Amino acid sequence: MIEIRWHGRGGQGSFTASRILGAAASVYGGINAMAFPSFGPERRGAPVLGFTKLSREPITDRSEILNPDYVIVLDESLWEEGVTLGLKEDTVIILNTQNARPYREKVSQRVVGADVTAVALEVTGLPMANLGMMGAFAAVEDTVALEAIHKAVLDAMKPSVAQKNIEVIQRVYHAVKEAL
Predict the structure, then answer these.
(1) Counted domains in the chain
(2) Domain span at residue 12?
(3) In sequence order, which residues have a C-beta less than 8 Å from that of residue 134 and are 6 or more positions away?
C-alpha cells in the first residue's frame, strides 16, 4: 500500500487534490484508493490534512496515515506544523517551494521541491498549487499514470478550468522529472 499525507491550509484544496488523485488511481488506473480529510471547524487558512491510500489489494484500514510513504506539502510555511511527524526513513517529501535546499538540510528523507505556485499563477492566474502537486507526485511515483490524473481532473471540473489545471500538472511533472 502507498500512503500519502497531504498538508495544506483550509481553502488551498489539499483534500480536493487527495480525492482527485484517488479517483485517478481507482477509476483510470485499476488501483484501489481511499481519500479522506482530517479537519474540524477550522477556518480558511488553518492547517488541514488530507490522506490518500493506494493499493492493489482491498483497503480496509480507514485510519489516518501516521507513517506516510509520501508527504505532499502545498505551503512551505507548514513545515513546522507536523510535516515531519511519523516519517519513515524512505518517506519522500514533495514540497511546494522555490528552494528545497534548506528543507533537505533539516531531514534525512528525500525532499523533492517544485515551485508549483509559480506555474499555477502563470497558467491560471491563481496561486492554487493543489492539483499541480499531483504532477510532482506522478514524476516521483509511477503508480498513478499522468494520463489517469488528466482524466480524473476532466471528470472533476468544467472543461475550461480542467484544461488549465492539466497544463499546470503537465508542466510541474516535466520540471520535476528534469530535476530528478
Answers:
(1) 1
(2) 2-179
(3) 17, 20, 21, 24, 149, 169
